[in-house]
Structures
1.
Amino acid sequence: VQLQESGPGLVKPSQILSLTCTISGGSITTNYYSWNWIRQPPGKGLEWIARITYSGSTSYSPSLNSRTSISRDTSNNRFTLLMSSVTPEDTAVYYCARSYNLGAWSYDYWGQGTQVTVSS
């Protein structure tokens, strides 16, 4: 399984950030797997943002829920993150990753990450 993030490297404050993760070597609808967006701001740890399951159910980080949306395109085997009202604090490397749950979430495949900078 390979995941590839795509999106703008630079976004202006207050704009909407759109990131897409394209999956190859596996299907976004394969039972029991979920697809995630995770970010790492400079000098900080990983922060989980959102998840969409194989059936299309979604979950969000409570701290980002009000301005994020995750969706999928099953025809093209990809999923997308939208984040509104971005600020410089949203500057980070954004990763997409696959996960599964056997009592706890485990992440087995990751994209290489894409740098997003929020700046005017």
2.
Amino acid sequence: QVQLVESGGGLVQPGGSLTLSCAASGSIFSIYAMGWYRQAPGKQRELVAVIPTGGRTNYADSVKGRFTISRDNAKNTVYLQMNSLKPEDTAVYYCNMAIATMTRKVHDYWGQGTQVTVSS
């Protein structure tokens, strides 16, 4: 089985910064795209940023220039550096990875979610 464990959420003042981490473990053969999504109360889950194995990262317009996604393939980990946070960034953040297990089948896996609250 594969598990994704997130960390790094919390309460931060507007203009502050947070870094989220998400580490995958288990029967992993290879990890393809990694990404972060978020869901605010009463809203649908939305893509925040995605980083493929090779190629360009992609960001939601609302976070461009403020958030940076990165990955450490040796650690099976994806990060989301969030700067200049705004109250509208408040949401539960979920990591997502496309992972091939030892059976070579590729599945989507999700983290448990971590709360980010931006408030003074």
